[in-house]
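re: that chain from earlier
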Amino acid sequence: MDPFASALDQAASVRRREVSALELVNMYLERIERHNPGLNAFWVLSGELARDQACSLPPGGGGSGGTDGGPLAGACTTVKDVVPMAGYPLTLGARAFERDVGTVDHFVVGKLKEAGCPILGRTTTPELGTRPVTEFGLHGATRNPWDLGRTAGGSSGGAAAALAAGLCAWSHGTDGGGSVRVPAACCGLVGLKPSRGRISMGPLGGEGWAGLSTQGILTRTVEDAGAALDALAGHLPGDPYWAEPEGSYLEAAGRRPRGLRVAVQVDAPGGVHRELADLVCRAGRALEVCGCEVEMGGPETGPFDEAMLTAVAAGVASYDLPGHAIHDPLNEAMMRRAARTSAASYVRAVAGIRAHSRAVVAFWDDHDLLLTPTLTQPPFEVGHLGGDPEAAMYEALGWLRFTYPYNCTGQPAISLPLGVTDDQLPLGVQLVGAPRAEGAILAAAAQLQECMPWNHRRPQP
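^ sequence. v structure.
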């Protein structure tokens, strides 16, 4: 079986009995043994669990307990080291938690098991998931399969590197400011951040970073992303936010958009890399040829900056970590920022995010989609965002200028690997939809996948 085949194709092969789920698990575990030492995508494996899951599937696929697991049954996946898996380490990439073990399964872990997707292991993340690069964590730096000197992005960098290197069929991630879309753009993948509340944060958590953080998905194809969202969507009693599923997202990826009003935005403070701006404009022209109405424009999102930093700093400080337990100087700076912030100031910051979100979301009264670069620059070299933590914080905001605003608003967004630089580094293009409009962005994304295909591009060994 081709380890780079789509998750849906792998699961279909299991259903046709061309390959068994156990054979897929063993294939990936062998590849992880060979390739992970140079990437640091996984920090701990769950091979025994994956084999048990695979063996529990009935012949021809199906979920746990012999039930029908749906179209992804048998497709191997991963779990980011920020959500609990019962009986497995839960470090959040932090020294303070290096001995902690999950006591329950997170909502998404339970959903993965129900879907019949063997879990190969836990992927590397920066300390507390705060960086857009996977560095400065307990488990070291994750490197980009396209160029080992470049970052895989973050904070779901391990998840992206594993998928891009052909070490799994699809990956789980989380996204608090771009942490799924950033590594997707860096590693040449599809990265989907669903609407706030589309996937529960339970059973232990209610929200992360004042609702900015969501569960997310990394895949090779748009159809895989739709199927994965079908598998993971849902909520638990008491969740502070929820968005009920609106039909099948896999089916939505099979539709083709007509007459959608698309805005194209390529301007940002500090500028956008020429090749990225050109790629976004080509994508806009492709949608126009397919019958969409395309114009230049976009909402003003700068007012989110300081309020978002306050919310993230409070989230870091909420762990109440002793100073000697901190690896990352950026997290130390976040804790100092939180110490200077009163409870009233925090409430005002969150209120400011909500107020400006209304102004930003109003842009979708007259548009169906926003098309932007995912990042303002191609993947940085490993270590680029080190140095002075305050400077790194604001440089990171500049790099993520098009991603974090839609964590503030809670809108769905997807990054697509539509191109590469002249020196063959992946470039990502983002589609942002109206609140709860994952179906629209998946349909438009599938159209772009057809017009500007990427499945022929793979990192060299």
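The chain has one domain: 7-303+346-451.
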